[in-house]
Amino acid sequence: MGMTTKQPGIRVPLVDEEHAEGRTAELYEEIKAVTGLPFVPDMFRLTSTNPRLLAVVVAGYGGIFGGDTLPRQLKELISAWTSKLNGCPYCVGTHSWFLSQFGGSDELLEAVSNANTAEELPVDERTMPLMQLVTKVSTGAYKITDADWERAAAAGWSDAEMLEAVFCACLFAFINRLVDATGLGSSVDRSRISRLGDE
């Protein structure tokens, strides 16, 4: 496993990147490959003392961001927006930064930060019913109806695209709760990724 550290405010020990061994070290390399980052984000390190759990997080993340069913910009919008709805500043900061890297406009980033409903997001009429659908994943997935799916389909989204959009929102519901429960999610300042532009 390797040496661990406890960071202030984070409730679980994290395996240091330079001291990772065995399966954890392998997964750390995979994370850097899938994120394109030179370091392992702390979100992944939350489960680093249990490689079985870490592998689940890596598989979920790679499943969404490794595919091309939906454009990357839209997946980042869904990730940042879901995190906003779920009250996870760390993930909002991280995925707003990725959204900006994949062509998200300043207006869109501002809306992710300040909007309270999907209807306030500056997206086109094709994207709106999809964003309304993924919003309901966070605000009450049990309230999703056939009509919600049909509106997105009528706007031109395929079954495969809608499944991936909903899965992305579900994955971030999971990630947001993991991050918040362990104490990482309390502040956007904890996101090294969101600060990449500042350095």
From TrEMBL:
Keyword hit for Oxidoreductase: yes
Gene3D superfamilies: AhpD-like
Signal peptide extent: none
Secreted among keywords: no
GO MF annotation: an example: peroxiredoxin activity
This protein's UniProt keywords: Oxidoreductase, Peroxidase
Domain Carboxymuconolactone decarboxylase-like: 51-112
Superkingdom as given in the UniProt entry: Bacteria
NCBIfam families: ahpD_dom (TIGR00778)
Name under which the protein is recorded: Uncharacterized peroxidase-related enzyme
Source organism (scientific name): Micromonospora halophytica
Upper taxonomic lineage: Bacteria, Bacillati, Actinomycetota, Actinomycetes, Micromonosporales
